[in-house]
Design brief:
Mean pLDDT: 82
Helix content: under 10%
Number of strands: 6
Number of helices: 0
Strand content: 35-45%
Oligomer: single chain
Structural class: mainly beta
Largest sheet: 2 strands, antiparallel
Low-confidence stretches: none
Shape: flat
């Protein structure tokens, strides 16, 4: 897929918070009813990992889980 422009990513953090803002050119999205599953894997300074998503399976993180695609863009 060719992008009109790369996503603009902005990070900010403090001792208690990590925030990421991502802006995507809407011309790069399919025309209608696109499903997204937003997710991240965060590794802290000790090496511990945490798994974040809009929706996980109940038993374990699975970023390919079809029911995790819960954000619709029309």
């Amino acid at each position: 897929m060719d992008l009109h422009s790369p996503p603009h990513v902005q990070l900010s953090s403090s001792d208690e918070r990590l925030q990421m803002n991502v802006n995507i050119d809407t011309r790069d999205l399919p025309a209608t009813n696109t499903m997204f599953a937003l997710s991240a894997v965060i590794e802290d300074v000790s090496g511990a990992k945490s798994y974040w998503a809009l929706k996980h399976r109940l038993d374990k993180p699975d970023f390919h889980y079809e029911h995790g695609f819960v954000l619709t863009v029309n």
